[in-house]
Automatic annotation (TrEMBL):
Keywords: Hydrolase
Acetylation among keywords: no
Family statement drawn from the similarity comment of this UniProt entry: Belongs to the 'GDXG' lipolytic enzyme family.
Active site: S155
UniProt organism field: Sphingomonas bisphenolicum
Protein known as: Lipase LipH
Length: 315
């Protein structure tokens, strides 16, 4: 499985990223932030980008609200950044939120949920679910349509998006039109088989890195049985909204990402699964210049727009 030639050339000119266990948490966050904010954003134009805070279960939650050009009310997408529940913030995946807002022609509410190890499981999920509820309750103020909502995330954020879909189904509201998941695994811990062995040493993400992040996040192994940590372990998946799942070919957690699709299909959920050749974990962050990332963004946005259109027809 060859690495994408553009990524291969990019990595050839850079020192190898060391295992994350070698970093103190603050240094790891600084390194990820420094490298992320230097990435170019996608060439899109938005009407506005605004920062604010919203009420959360343990205090104020920072959010960033992206509004597309045009006349609302727009669909609403609540987006959760990746980073293993340990790193990342509103800036590190700002480029993804921008691309999503413009491409899906939707108001995107990006959520700065609490991070581990200071805030263990399930803090990130509690903040994120609060943000979904707040977005639905404030749809009109956001120039949005509460009847047209989706959740989205990359990596750890994809796990959060999957969990919020299950939480919304359990609560009966809000009614979500779609779930968009870029390489968020459906099961934890990551099974030591298939892609986990083939790409155990990366590139970019090592299998041990994934285990380290979860070691920082969970309190004990019992947390893995919770559907918020392992969406595949929910008692039922029936009635979930249509789900888009993107995986990266050269990613140790690829098989754990893709394993969720058949579970959903068996429950009667409409699923679109795409594996992106030559891509590595985290590749959508390179949407500003990498064709594979641009394809994954375009596919997710097209899926969201298709589901929003279906929701309008069925209203």
């Amino acid at each position: 499985m060859p690495l994408d030639h553009q990524l291969e050339a990019m990595f050839a000119g850079q020192p190898e990223w060391p295992p994350v266990r070698n970093f103190p948490i603050d240094a790891l966050r600084d390194a990820v932030r420094s490298s992320s904010v230097q990435l170019p954003p996608p060439a899109v134009t938005l009407a506005s980008v605004d920062d604010r805070t919203i009420p959360g279960p343990a205090g104020e939650i920072p959010v960033r609200i992206y509004t597309p050009e045009g006349a609302g009310p727009f669909p609403l997408i609540v987006y959760f950044h990746g980073g293993g529940f340990v790193v990342g913030d509103l800036d590190t995946q700002d480029m993804i939120a921008r691309g999503l807002s413009a491409g899906a022609e939707s108001v995107v509410v990006s959520v700065g949920y609490r991070l581990a190890p200071e805030h263990k499981f399930p803090a990130a999920f509690e903040d994120s679910w609060a943000a979904v509820q707040w977005t639905a309750a404030n749809a009109t103020k956001l120039a949005g349509d509460a009847a047209l909502m989706a959740v989205a995330g990359d990596s750890a954020g994809g796990v959060i998006a999957s969990a919020c879909g299950l939480l919304a189904k359990k609560a009966g509201a809000p009614k979500l039109s779609a779930i968009l998941n870029w390489y968020g695994p459906g099961i934890h811990p990551i099974p030591a088989e298939g892609s986990a062995i083939e790409f155990a040493d990366g590139p970019v993400l090592r299998l041990d890195d994934a285990h380290f992040f979860w070691d920082m996040f969970i309190t004990d192994d019992a947390d893995y049985q919770d559907f918020r940590a392992s969406p595949m372990k929910a008692s039922s998946h029936e009635g979930l909204p249509p789900t888009f799942i993107a995986s990266a070919e050269c990613d140790p957690i690829r098989d754990a990402v893709e394993a969720y699709g058949p579970v959903l299909e068996q429950a009667g959920v409409k699923v679109e699964m795409q594996r992106y050749p030559g891509m590595v974990h985290g590749f959508v962050s390179w949407v500003g210049f990498l064709p594979g990332a641009q394809a994954a963004m375009a596919d997710a946005c097209a899926f969201a727009k298709m589901q929003f259109a279906a929701s309008r027809r069925n209203a």
